[in-house]
């Protein structure tokens, strides 16, 4: 239910709703700006809501699939504790597709940052890119896009390295 809620709201709709509830109505958090941890809470929830929902569904599906395999039944028959079976055997193998989705979602996180930074007046590369486009500063636009692209490539490379950590059989 929570993951469906996270998937239902895009960043440009969730941000203003969170501002309305937690900043204006309740007065708990600042509306916009940067500087303290309190300024980071609403943008982080806005950007992470949909991504967490996708990851939650992916982990659940992957774990259900892994728990149905024969090697899990064998591990249970050997007398391993349920904790060892789930964490050492099933979760380790279930993390491969989750890592793939996590690496790909980082690109969506960078794209969503442009909208979120604008809504919350948060200084960042997304907002800088939009301002550079508005000012027709093409060199700055190229630099921002290059930085975003290199970050995306680095995260995909890191994802490939994490495959071998999650599943030692991939090292071969």
* Rg value: 20 Å
What is the CATH first-level class name?
Mainly Alpha
- Which spans of ≥5 residues are poorly predicted at pLDDT below 50? none
How many DSSP helices?
7
CATH topology: MetI-like fold
Q: How would you characterize the largest beta sheet?
A: none
Share in helix:
over 70%
β-strand amount: under 5%
How many domain units? 1
Strands, helices and their partners?
Elements: H1 2-8, H2 11-25, H3 37-67, H4 70-77, H5 82-119, H6 125-134, H7 138-166
Helix pairs in contact: 1-3, 2-3, 2-5, 3-5, 4-5, 5-6, 5-7, 6-7
Q: Main traits of this protein?
A:
172 residues, mainly alpha, MetI-like fold, 7 helices, flat
Question: Could you write a compact summary of the structure shown?
Answer:
This protein is mostly helical. It is built from seven helices and no strands.
Structure write-up:
This protein is an all-alpha fold and 172 residues long. The protein has a single domain (2-171), classed as MetI-like (MetI-like fold, Orthogonal Bundle). Helix content is 80%, strand content 0%. The longest helix is centred in the middle third of the chain and has 38 residues, at 82-119.
